[in-house]
């Protein structure tokens, strides 16, 4: 399943990631907050992976991962934390929250594709 849910409050990020991934043969859905994201997850059962911005207003990525990983319906969907926070300890904080992988912004497309292909078999 090459279907990706991109969750980011910045429309430029969702647009850019979606355009690149679509060009590489992925199906993408976007959400600008977790309310939208949960609506997409409920309606689109084929989501294979989630790219999750960690710093969003309202519910941030750390809270969102805890809910996703503790909800039976979503717990098996890999979550890649996408964040501009690249200070020492930030990566570990994402993994401690339950992220399956981590990518820092600006996103390196080759790294992103390698990570997506690792989880979307």
The overall strand count is 5
Oligomer: single chain
Distance between the termini: 7 Å
Q: Examine the coordinates and then state which fold CATH places here, giving the name of the CATH topology.
A: Rossmann fold
Q: For the record, what CATH class applies?
A: Alpha Beta
Q: How many distinct helices?
A: 5
Low-confidence parts: none
For the residues shown, what is the average pLDDT? 93
Q: What overall form do the CA principal axes indicate?
A: globular
* Helicity range: 40-55%
Give the CATH architecture. 3-Layer(aba) Sandwich
Name given to the CATH homologous superfamily:
Response regulator
The chain-level structural class is: alpha/beta
Strand percent estimate: 15-25%
Roughly how many Å is the radius of gyration?
13 Å
Note the run of SSEs as H and E. EHEHEHEHEH
Strand order of the largest sheet: 2-1-3-4-5
């Amino acid at each position: 399943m090459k279907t990706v849910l991109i969750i980011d409050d910045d429309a430029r990020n969702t647009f850019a990631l979606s355009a690149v991934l679509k060009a590489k043969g992925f199906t993408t859905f976007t959400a600008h907050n977790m309310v939208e994201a949960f609506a997409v997850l409920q309606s689109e059962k084929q989501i294979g992976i989630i790219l999750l911005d960690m710093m969003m207003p309202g519910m941030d990525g750390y809270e969102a991962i805890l809910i996703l990983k503790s909800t039976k319906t979503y717990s098996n969907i890999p979550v890649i934390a996408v964040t501009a926070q690249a200070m020492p300890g930030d990566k570990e904080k994402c993994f401690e929250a339950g992220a399956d992988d981590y990518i820092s912004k600006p996103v390196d497309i080759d790294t992103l594709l390698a990570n997506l292909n690792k989880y979307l078999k």
